[in-house]
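User: I'm preparing a small set of examples for a lab meeting where we compare how different chains pack in three dimensions. I only have the primary sequence for this one, and I'd like the structure in token form so I can line it up with the others. Please keep the answer compact; I'll paste it straight into my notes.
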Amino acid sequence: MNLVELLDPQTPPRSEILANIYSTHKTAKARHAALAQNYERALTQALQKDARERQPVFASNTYSGTLVTSFLMDGSVTPLQNKWAFLRAYSIAKDTDPYKPLATGELKYTTGGEPTQIAGTAPTTFEPATGSTVGAITIVPQWFNQPMRVSANDLNSGLRLDDLREKNLAMFADAVTVAATAPITAANFSAQTPLIQTFGGFGFSDLATLQGQLQKSPIKNAILNGNYLARILNQPGFFQKTGTDMEDAGGYQAFGWNGIYEASNWTGAGNNVNGFACNPQAIVRATGLPLNPTNIPGGTLNSTMLDLPALGIAVQFNLWFSLSTRTLFASWDLIAGFAAGDTTAGVVVAVGTPS
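Assistant: Understood. Below is the structure token output for the 355-residue chain.
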């Protein structure tokens, strides 16, 4: 044992690290794993060896680019994606037709009742001639499909299906959210005066205004762009919640609201719209799963129902394999349609003049 190893008992003998790695582990994969596991100790040993030998500095060797290789780390990183409010925060759910889920649906919309009779004596008739007024909310479903794949070449190059999951799920949630927020326009919800406020000017007085406009609603939810939400969070003087679990079943509850939700994608809504205060019946959605043939030969398609956590709804997950290309495919599928429902139950929040 040399002087360096005596002074530093934590430093293993040379044979324990570099020499033993190449003599004990017979495959390149095993050697790589052992070297990666002992990398810091091996590096320290190599530096100490250089210091001991005090070799002069020479020009470095030239290696072929195909000889010195990199290794692919496990997992992947996906850039930050949008935040999406649960659909139930601003829409009520109805089912699509179980036999033909792409069929247009109609929901009864009762806008007028029979006149109330007020008199000092008993009414002359309990069967007046007029009746209630019932209209229809029409919902046209669409098929949302988000595919992803890993080919044989991808697989052997280190790519895994899970590396693609986060980004593809985000794209799927974005597409559904764009359709879900499309009815949120100033024209549809003209019964309530839009709240027009800049991001920097938004505050608790604006929440009070919105609550006043929804005074008839037993449920009051607010779906806000993160720039609005930041103006009402982290105000210690109000002793409010810290804001954790904002996307749970109840949302973030504070200041008399049933739920306050963050949503960063408003591209489907009207121009300048960045928020919506509502009773969920302001928008009606019809959702269902696509139908697949029964008894698919060879079991080549595996379908199951999963929850889509970002939106709080059930979707269909499909997995299949192509024998001709040895490619593994997967997709999320949903049939959904959205329409303005009770147009008196929503208030548009806009950063500028909305449309």
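A couple of notes for your slides: The chain has two domains: 3-53, 78-117+131-355. Residues 161-181 form the longest helix (21 residues).

User: Perfect, thanks.
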